[in-house]
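Discoidin domain-containing protein, pasting as requested.
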Amino acid sequence: MRLRSLGVALVATAALVTLPAPMAATAADTPLSQGRTATSSSAENAATPSGNAVDGDAATRWSSAASDDQWLQVDLGATASVTRVVLDWEAAYGKDYKIQLSQDGSTWTDAKTVTGGDGGTDTLDVSGQGRYVRMQGVHRATPWGYSLWEFQVFGTTGGTAPGGSCDTANAAQGRPASASSVENAGTPAAAAFDGDAGTRWSSQAADPQWVRVDLGAVKDLCKVDLNWEAAYAKDFRIEASSDGQTWQTLKSVTGATGGKSSYDVSGSGRYVRVHGTARATGYGYSLWEVAVHTGTTGTPPVEGGGDLGPNVIVVDPSTPNLQQKFDQVFAQQESNQFGSGRHQFLLKPGTYNGINAQLGFYTSISGLGLNPDDTQINGDITVDAGWFNGNATQNFWRSAENLAITPSNGTDRWAVAQAAPFRRIHVKGGLNLAPNGYGWASGGYIADSKIDGTVGPYSQQQWYTRDSSVGGWTNGVWNMTFTGVEGAPGSNFETGPYTTLDTTPISREKPFLYLDGNEYKVRVPAKRTNARGVSWPANAGGTSLPLSQFYVVKPGATAATINAALDQGLNLLFTPGVYHIDQTIEVDRANTVVLGLGLATIIPDGGVDAMHVADVDGVRLAGFLIDAGPVNSDTLLRIGTPGGNADHSANPTTMQDVFIRVGGAGPGRATDSVVVESDDVLIDHTWIWRADHGEGVGWETNRADYGLRVNGDDVLATGLFVEHFNKYDVYWSGERGRTIFFQNEKAYDAPNEAAITHDGIVGYAAYKVADSVDEHEAVALGSYCNYTSDPTIVQHHGFQVPVKPGVRMRNLQVISLGGMGQYRHVVNDTGAATSGTDTVPSKVVQFP
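Structure tokens follow.
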């Protein structure tokens, strides 16, 4: 766990010591470690995180907690031949330590052992291969922790694999190019990569200058040919980068004489740059041609960008027969609850008149503007429940995002249940959340949306609305929760359904695809704190990533290719489809975006875990479904690594509209569905569901013990739906966790009380906070029982928490659905029992 309070004391003590000025480790080449992802066993405080040791800045540092057996490791992004490690120690140095190498970050080999170190700068020659390099502290030299200004790893990555060769073709020819400057319009950067020795690039007459080329994807690099004009470089570097920002030196040349020359290199990158540092003449730098040769290893690199595949339907207002396109997909998907069809409609900016887009299962509709009002629908986006006789409790797995609706009759109908997000929508009228005829509905979720008129939930049992604006809100059934919603009704939970918080403590909107001119980009919104109202049209902060930085995953893609793309530094855009994988998808790089369209579905085969996310900053998981396979997986989705405790508060990993299903589409099994190991994770709308209907459903047939387990500290869940697990639906053991809105049903198919009795208690709590936890806060939680296999079951309680001053629970309720089982208490031994068949909540407003 993170030692924040201890860190404050250590900082105060360290301030009494006069520290030597930091000294940068000198080296001709840029370290392989610079700018890469770093993690550590601990950090002294938020100002000394792991990343400071690999940022290239000798004035920032990492420091650990004040104990032995601490470590700092860096992920080089690919296997490297490591030749040298330089450690620039602060005053708190390691007396005894090891340098270790690993291919997977878990099994380590000692490359160098240091005893009796005296601090300062340690330059260590090593020999070995690994993707991960670690300083493993054994004994400290001071009472403080371990502290490094810089941790630098040198060597080579990539290159041509054994048995491969260096391609004679020029991989740079005709590729996009740029430069630090040009002499004039007649000497552009592209002229150095056009294959024409009669055209040239030339720069302004100043040092330094550079010219670079984008190869389109990360490639193994083996040779670079240069053909200098009379204005040549005396000193220069040939560099490579996977992202165009962090550069690795492939070759450093001094005292060059111009003309034609070839340089063998070893490394990999998408971008190659010739970086001149000293001119040989009074003019600038000038190159007739630059040729880049790549290794042929039999495994071509994964290309970024490209088309969006067969199941994405891109339209504009002039698209012929547009209503027919919507109707055709709806006819296929209206009742196709467990089928394999997946569809995404993308609407280019403009005005669409007279459209009624009815959305069935696994169908998503999104505008392609940067703001919702860029895409105007004069018509409707409709979800109703005619397929299920007017009952909307199974209207799952569909979405609408990033557009404006002017409803044809003044009110749009969005009658959904779980896993049906409504995001970044401007409704220029009212919104009806109930089906025609006001049958049952069991939703739902709205975020970052503006509804000018009144929202009418009517028969909706529960609903969570975040960071939005409503013209009004009428009635409700059990649990209507609002955070950061302008126009929300006031709280009345003691006598009614409403829980209202003025702001949302932390939020970050979901990434979304949009068009910048004719180029697809993914917008990655910034974090907001104490948010209220919509984030647009300002869209303050955040970044935009071109589609070329994404592997566009299409049906038929393999896990090996997906992981290769991630290793190259690409993000993932899953197009609509069902993806069977035979190895775990490993998301190891900070700030990686994994975005799904049309409820893209990942199914792990052979009992592998579906996805692991490393303990790194800022990963964005959004918009996809993980469906358990028939062979038991240990964990379907794991965020962070066990024991990880890095501080991610400035840039948390987010999980948004990521849904988990165990059974229903066929037998599925998993011990844990989602496990959160990282600190500061933001879970913003998820439905984690062990199926109660469909195929492959039974107490042991689709067994899944736990829905969500949270081991990380400072995790926030906003909009948490978890249902029907064999044991605990939510088990929270991290400190300072927070949940705003929780919806739960206990497993319908528990065969009898004996099957769910543990520790002398009948029934596993829907939401359990571990006895070891000192601080936890949750508000607006509901658990419902519907024990159809044995209606005589009396569950002891819905919620179980330690009774401590720092554990605070508010607005809790339990409900017996029609008398199919009962609850004896609400939380622990507090709260009245449910009784009879009246389906009336039993509530506790505050506990303890």
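Note for the archive: The longest helix spans residues 322-333.
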